[in-house]
Amino acid sequence: MSAPLTWLHDWFHARQPALVLQPEDNYFEAGAIDSLGVIELIEDVEQAFALRFSAEDFQDRRFSSIAGLASLLEEKAARAASPGEAPQVAAKAPA
Fold first, then answer.
1. Positive or negative: CA dihedral 11, 16, 18, 22
2. How high is the pLDDT of residue 81?
3. Splitting the chain (95 residues) into consecutive groups of 10 residues, what average pLDDT does each group show?
């Protein structure tokens, strides 16, 4: 499991331990997150991964699942990496 995928899984599990959420599940449709939770998720992800989401990121269909958001985070890390360096996606533990 990638660092973003693991971090996101842990983040959702910490908020709703009884909910079984698969990486491809739409976490909005599954009831795993509400509008306030989206704001918390965005703030926590930006802090943990030292990045900022753009308006386009929020329109990306991948933003609605753990696997999709992890993929988006990995892409953002790859774009931020210096040429010739392998991208490293490290995260602080979820709050």
1. negative
2. 76
3. 93 95 96 95 95 93 96 91 54 61
The DSSP line for 24-47 is TSBTTTTTS--HHHHHHHHHHHHH
* DSSP letter, residue 72: H
Q: Is 20 left (phi over 0), alpha (psi -120 to 50) or beta?
A: beta
Question: In which residue are the tokens 């976490």 written?
Answer: 27
Structural domains present in the chain = 3-80 (1.10.1200.10)
- Segment (H or E) for 12: helix 3-15
Q: Is 33 within 8 Å of 64 (Cβ atoms)?
A: no
pTM of the model: 0.81
The two three-digit tokens of residue 95, written as one number? 């709050």
Dump strand ranges (E) for 1-95: none
In contact, 28 and 86? CB cutoff 8 Å: no
Predicted pLDDT of residue 87: 44
